[in-house]
């Protein structure tokens, strides 16, 4: 229960809390005690990095999956094969209705009614993203996420040259925007968020061709390059909260294994939502195996970079059968 509460509060923007001694299992306390006197051996960490095979394995798989899903919309549209029709906000896959959960919520608030087809599509998508891990949608399917990821690389390069400086905001702003967009839909009868969501704009542009709305996307990307890295995903987009809640109890997750971790912190440097990896800080893990919080997008960058495989994908239902 404590994990669920902590994970949910982090989704809403609260900083991770440092566990009390009573929150930590005896097995984890023993490992923490053993590690307390250990100093980080960077030569060993570099050697482990060099030895690790399959660098960027999950990044390549994720990019390939994201491109495949979005191109499937294009192929279906241009060749009229009715395989995956529509766009990310609302689609039909092999005849099954699918509706983005946040879009469906916005529509129902705007029209103040529950539409049956929309409800069916919502259930389908809810089950899908519950199984594969909530915010996996963000990093494995959302086309704006990929553009933002590339923009972040430019931002980091400019920051390294001391040409830009990242301006962070409080993550709780995203929760405020979530309420604002919901209230706007209810009060105006118009899905305001959908009109400005770069996810929908980019998805429709890929399938049906570019529109002037792409200028808004360009503005967002420039803002993220020169002002605040990943500003839209971190501080504005309500989709992340919606899918994060779906993923609270998802069996697909990134799990942290305490014993072999060197605590060098490379995982937090590459993470898109680094607060979820506070558990890797020495003394923070409450057990020998800890699931990473629901705000994790399951992008796999921490799994790729971890030199000791202390971060790994797991499907909890399968782990329980072992």
UniProtKB/TrEMBL annotation:
<dbReference type="InterPro" id="IPR017896">
    <property type="entry name" value="4Fe4S_Fe-S-bd"/>
</dbReference>
<feature type="transmembrane region" description="Helical">
    <location>
        <begin position="104"/>
        <end position="131"/>
    </location>
</feature>
<dbReference type="GO" id="GO:0051539">
    <property type="term" value="F:4 iron, 4 sulfur cluster binding"/>
</dbReference>
<feature type="transmembrane region" description="Helical">
    <location>
        <begin position="63"/>
        <end position="84"/>
    </location>
</feature>
<dbReference type="GO" id="GO:0005886">
    <property type="term" value="C:plasma membrane"/>
</dbReference>
<feature type="transmembrane region" description="Helical">
    <location>
        <begin position="205"/>
        <end position="223"/>
    </location>
</feature>
<keyword id="KW-0812">Transmembrane</keyword>
<feature type="transmembrane region" description="Helical">
    <location>
        <begin position="175"/>
        <end position="193"/>
    </location>
</feature>
<dbReference type="GO" id="GO:0046872">
    <property type="term" value="F:metal ion binding"/>
</dbReference>
<keyword id="KW-0813">Transport</keyword>
<feature type="domain" description="4Fe-4S ferredoxin-type">
    <location>
        <begin position="288"/>
        <end position="316"/>
    </location>
</feature>
<keyword id="KW-0677">Repeat</keyword>
<dbReference type="InterPro" id="IPR017900">
    <property type="entry name" value="4Fe4S_Fe_S_CS"/>
</dbReference>
<dbReference type="Pfam" id="PF12801">
    <property type="entry name" value="Fer4_5"/>
</dbReference>
<keyword id="KW-0004">4Fe-4S</keyword>
<dbReference type="InterPro" id="IPR011886">
    <property type="entry name" value="NapH_MauN"/>
</dbReference>
<dbReference type="InterPro" id="IPR051684">
    <property type="entry name" value="Electron_Trans/Redox"/>
</dbReference>
<protein>
    <submittedName>
        <fullName>Ferredoxin-type protein NapH</fullName>
    </submittedName>
</protein>
<keyword id="KW-0479">Metal-binding</keyword>
<keyword id="KW-1133">Transmembrane helix</keyword>
<feature type="transmembrane region" description="Helical">
    <location>
        <begin position="235"/>
        <end position="258"/>
    </location>
</feature>
<keyword id="KW-0408">Iron</keyword>
<keyword id="KW-0249">Electron transport</keyword>
<keyword id="KW-0472">Membrane</keyword>
<keyword id="KW-0411">Iron-sulfur</keyword>
<dbReference type="Pfam" id="PF00037">
    <property type="entry name" value="Fer4"/>
</dbReference>
């Amino acid at each position: 229960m404590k994990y669920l509460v902590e994970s949910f509060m982090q989704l809403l923007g609260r900083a991770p809390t440092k566990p009390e001694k009573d929150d930590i299992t005896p097995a984890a306390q023993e490992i923490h005690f053993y590690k307390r006197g250990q100093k980080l051996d960077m030569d060993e960490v570099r050697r482990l990095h060099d030895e690790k095979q399959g660098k960027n394995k999950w990044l390549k798989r994720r990019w390939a999956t994201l491109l495949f899903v979005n191109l499937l919309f294009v192929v279906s549209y241009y060749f009229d094969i009715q395989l995956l029709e529509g766009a990310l906000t609302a689609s039909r896959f092999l005849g099954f209705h699918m509706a983005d959960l946040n879009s469906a919520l916005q529509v129902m608030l705007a029209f103040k009614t529950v539409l049956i087809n929309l409800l069916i599509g919502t259930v389908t998508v809810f089950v899908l993203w519950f199984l594969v891990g909530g915010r996996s949608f963000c990093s494995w399917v959302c086309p704006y996420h990929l553009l933002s990821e590339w923009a972040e690389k430019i931002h980091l390069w400019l920051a390294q040259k001391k040409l830009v400086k990242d301006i962070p905001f409080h993550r709780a702003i995203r929760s405020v925007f979530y309420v604002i967009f919901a209230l706007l839909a209810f009060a105006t009868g118009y899905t305001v968020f959908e009109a400005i969501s770069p996810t929908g704009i980019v998805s429709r542009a890929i399938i049906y061709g570019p529109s002037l709305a792409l200028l808004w996307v360009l503005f967002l990307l420039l803002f993220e390059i020169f002002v605040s890295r990943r500003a839209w995903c971190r501080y504005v987009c309500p989709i992340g909260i919606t899918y994060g809640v779906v993923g609270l109890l998802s069996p697909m997750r990134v799990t942290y294994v305490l014993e072999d971790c060197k605590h060098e912190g490379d995982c937090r440097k590459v993470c898109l939502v680094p607060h979820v990896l506070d558990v890797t800080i020495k003394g923070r893990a409450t057990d020998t195996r800890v699931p990473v919080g629901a705000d994790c997008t399951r992008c796999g960058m921490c799994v790729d970079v971890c030199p000791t495989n202390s971060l790994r994908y797991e499907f909890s239902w399968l782990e329980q059968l072992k």
